Amino acid sequence: MSRIGKAPISLPSGVSVDMKGSTVTIKGPKGTLEQEFHPDMMIDLDDGVLTVQRPSDSRDHRSLHGLTRALLNNMVVGVSDGYVRILRIEGVGYRAAMDGKKLELNVGYSHPIYFEPEKDMSFEVDDRGKTIRVFGIDKQMVGEIAAQIRKTRPPEPYKGKGVRYDGEYVRRKAGKAGKV
């Protein structure tokens, strides 16, 4: 049996679940998330605890069991606590700033690059313009936007300049050897 799939999800206070067929809507203090799941997966709500059960031990049902539970848990955590992804900018002249609600990046191009926040998302930049925080309730969307920001100027291995995730290790290379 799936170890992840059989773990129950306890709902924090202020979070409500509404199920209509295979569509689950979760409302919390930070917002509302809705997702449709595979109709074979049985999602039960008893006394503030969500459980996921599968109809058989077939390979497809086993894989869907853990996936469904993980997605439900991400939705519950998102509407109650939210998610944050931190990016760091390295390099002389590279910086980020807020332009209203939009994020403005200056990372070595002739023009600034702008990012509009999606629904239920926001950006935050520190005073020096070297740290970006991406906030949101949808874990998948927060990761996707952070990946798009990093993709504007990925860290290069010679000087380490670029946009990187917080805690990301960039393997450095030696430059040219030069004349001996």
Please provide a written account of the structure.
- The chain is α+β, with helices and mostly antiparallel strands and 180 residues long.
- It has two domains: 72 residues, Outer Surface Protein A, domain 3 (Alpha-Beta Complex); 83 residues, Alpha-Beta Complex (Outer Surface Protein A, domain 3), CATH 3.90.930.12.
- It has two helices and 13 strands; from the N terminus they run ββββββαββββββαβ.
- The strands form four sheets. A four-stranded antiparallel β-sheet has the order 11-12-7-13, with helices on one face. A three-stranded antiparallel β-sheet has the order 1-6-5, covered by helices on one side.
- The longest helix has 22 residues.
- It is elongated and about 70 Å long.
- The N and C termini lie far apart (64 Å).
- The mean pLDDT is 92.
Quick recap:
This protein is an alpha+beta fold.
Q: Quick one: CATH superfamily of the largest domain?
A: Ribosomal protein L6
Unreliable spans are none
The helix/strand class is alpha+beta
Work out the oligomeric state of the chains in this entry. single chain
Total strands: 13
Discrete helix count: 2
Number of domains: 2
Indicate the mean pLDDT. Answer: 92
CATH topology of the largest domain, by name, is Outer Surface Protein A, domain 3
Intertermini distance: 64 Å
Rounded to an integer in angstroms, the radius of gyration calculated over CA atoms is: 21 Å
Instruction: Quickly give the CATH architecture of the largest domain.
Output: Alpha-Beta Complex
Q: What share of residues is helical? A: 10-25%
What top-tier CATH class of the largest domain fits best? Answer: Alpha Beta
Strand order in the largest sheet: 11-12-7-13
